[in-house]
Specification:
6 strands, alpha/beta, globular, 41% helix, Pyruvate-ferredoxin Oxidoreductase, domain 3, single chain
Length: 193
């Protein structure tokens, strides 16, 4: 059985670190792991998607439409953009953060209202978290990715300890305390939803 996790966001949000944490957790459990990254003008705030696939034997690193068990989104519009890749019984874990794309900034279009509510109306399991404020409280707004990984624990086949161990091997020592705090705030968040 192969598990598929997509991590989506905007360039500079830490999707590569998030995929490294999940990939390291899977490898530590003895799974065959494939990770693939797709960057769309990521250095200019464009869309970034990372695929993490793991199981007994994984032949391809790419996740097709309708195959993702979990989508972790760092931003609402990216959640909507990649929603068609989620399985019928999959889970979308998204930050409530809004990052304005260039067409919105230039005024040629508007950011959609009530995007998370619209997604929920499609009978999709959505875990929406104000990950930005939780990351800030943990010590760095750059830890949004780790807040969302903490929340993902409840929907993955990894234990909390397995993901914490992977986190410890994936981040530099000087950033470990902030990231551990961020992980805990995401993990605890699900308990209050």
């Amino acid at each position: 059985m192969v598990k598929n996790i997509m991590i989506v966001g905007v360039g500079g949000q830490g999707s590569l670190l998030a995929s490294r944490i999940v990939g390291n957790a899977a490898m530590a459990q003895g799974y065959d792991v494939k990770v693939s990254e797709v960057h769309g003008m990521s250095q200019r705030g464009g869309s970034v998607v990372t695929y993490v696939r793991y199981g007994d034997k994984v032949h391809s690193p790419v996740i097709g439409r309708g195959e993702a068990d979990i989508i972790i989104s760092f931003e609402q519009l990216e959640a909507a953009r990649w929603l068609s890749f989620l399985k019928k019984d999959g889970v979308l874990i998204t930050s409530t953060q809004k990052i304005m794309p260039m067409p919105v900034i230039t005024g040629s279009t508007q950011y959609p209202d009530e995007l998370i509510s619209q997604i929920k109306e499609k009978n999709i399991k959505v875990v929406a978290i104000d990950a930005l404020s939780k990351a800030e409280k943990a010590g760095s707004i750059k830890a949004v990715n780790v807040v969302l990984i903490g929340a993902m624990t409840h929907y993955s086949n990894f234990s909390k300890q397995q993901l914490l161990d992977a986190l410890k091997t994936s981040v530099p020592q000087k950033l470990l305390s902030v990231n551990l705090n961020a992980f805990e705030s995401g993990y605890e968040c699900e308990q209050t939803l």
